[in-house]
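Example record used in the benchmark description.
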Amino acid sequence: MVHSESPGSGLFARFFRGEATGRRSARFGYAFAALAATISGVSVYVNSLGVKSFADPVLYTALKDGFVGLLLLLPLVVSPGWRAEYRRLDRRTWAWLLALALTGGSVPFALFFTGLQMTTAATGAVINHFQFVLVAFFALIFLKEAIRPALWAGFSVLLLGTLLGSNLHALQWNRGAWLIAASTVLFAIDFVIAKHLLRGLATLTVMTARMTIGTALLLVYVLATGRLAPVAHLGPAQWQFVGITGLLLLAFTVTTFTAIRNASVSAVLAIGAAAPIITTLLQVATSGHAKLAVADLPGLGVIVLAVVGIIVVGLRQDARAMAPELPGQTATA
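Model output (structure tokens):
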């Protein structure tokens, strides 16, 4: 999609204008995937502190997501070129963007936090570990993404590593678990839809639609369930957590969507499974009593080896797939 009006100037604008030519870099994508995993690990740790200061985790999620949505709207406010980009979208593309917002920006959050209140944290963690596996299957079926046997082997080893560090004895398969499973499926679908859209649209266009429309839908849910009233009584510390975690979410969204645009979505999500390593290290480093259990080391080691293998194999596979592409050649959404 070509802009009739330049969406601003400078490095930021040149990067997104360059997307219109269809240029993609596998190395760029995998580097951003690793960066997104690191940011995710930090974000989970900070969010574990921030959510404790809120009585309602859904409200907390809606506020920080809303903060990100507002930040992503700034280019639309200052640049007529970006506003023209959205006016140029057809109904079919808007339908895909709405599906993206429903499957990633609103409904799954409500399902996940509601389900987490009904079951154990271990149950939620184990179910969530299967997200990258679902993404791989959906990408294979709907995007026709080529996944070689070596990558499937890497995914299998990675799943084994994540399960080694899980408390399988604390699993409770009840209604809450079903809700978390539904949210995991929706999140997986969301990333596949994002990959489909990023084949023909700018990253900023897709990110902004997902976060703004998704947050609007989530706020409707918060209003409908009477959860918004406590906002008037939030203190400075709570708003500080909203701002910090919101910035982390913005960084995660930018790096993840940039990675998905430049690399295979299945590999990007698999690399993201390494995020708990960062979270664990932060917990050990900042807590006076938390220690890295010997029982956790095999699982963490397997995860590291699997992710390194996925990066090596996936990078070679994606680089070979992109080699025949000519500058300016891109798929349509």
